[in-house]
Design goal:
The chain is of the alpha+beta class. The protein is built from five helices and seven strands, in the order βαααβββαβαββ. Bound molecules: coenzyme A.
């Protein structure tokens, strides 16, 4: 599947903020990645987290965070970034936006976080769409086993070398 339009990544800017806050997912998906309305204020407070907006032809259609501390359940270190809170707006899911965004991630990390050579994340074992997305974009099992400490059930720990 290929995304219609051009997918790019941008740090959250004041100009993008209102549209990013309006990105929503289906109610049953909230437990997987939250919503920007709840995630963005956390990143505002915590300097370790960068809010990243996924744009389609310049319009915000998705959101995630990069965390210099890694994420709960995954290895951490000076060369590691954690990826968390990934969501694609519910109206645009299944159109290749998530795939294009994850394929754009290595260049974004190299440009914004020189010295960070791996992206780690956790994904719920009962979220097959997300697991398939990460597998299709180069993420592999991080080799640290299943993380059982999450609030939403067992999670796979995945790694992408960038
Ligand atoms: C998971 C999510 C990020 C995927 O983004 P997306 O833009 O819908 O995905 P894409 O259209 O780019 O699809 C890329 C690949 O993901 C997988 N995928 C996406 N949606 C899927 C679905 N409903 N069922 C199965 N696989 C799916 C497929 O492997 C797909 O590749 P293919 O089309 O060649 O088969 C999006 O559905 C989402 O925001 N879900 C709710 C929040 C969430 O689960 N976040 C992840 C937290 S770890």
């Amino acid at each position: 599947m290929s995304a219609t339009g051009t997918i790019t990544l941008s740090p959250l800017t004041p100009e993008l903020r209102d549209a990013a806050l309006r990105i929503t997912v289906a109610p049953e998906q909230v437990r997987f990645g939250g919503t920007p309305a709840s995630s963005i204020p956390v990143a505002d407070r915590e300097s370790a987290r960068e809010s990243v907006v996924i744009l389609r032809d310049g319009t915000p259609v998705g959101y995630f965070q990069l965390d210099t501390r890694s994420v709960p359940g995954a290895p951490a270190g000076a060369h590691i970034l954690g990826l968390r809170a990934l969501v694609i707006d519910r109206a645009l899911q299944g159109q290749g936006v998530g795939r294009a965004a994850m394929l754009a991630l290595p260049d974004y990390v190299r440009a914004r976080f020189p010295g960070r050579t791996a992206v780690l994340l956790t994904v719920n074992a009962d979220n097959p769409p997300a697991i398939a997305l990460y597998a299709a974009t180069g993420f592999v099992d991080a080799g640290v086993g299943i993380y059982e400490g999450g609030h939403a059930g067992p999670q796979h720990v995945l790694r992408l070398d960038v």
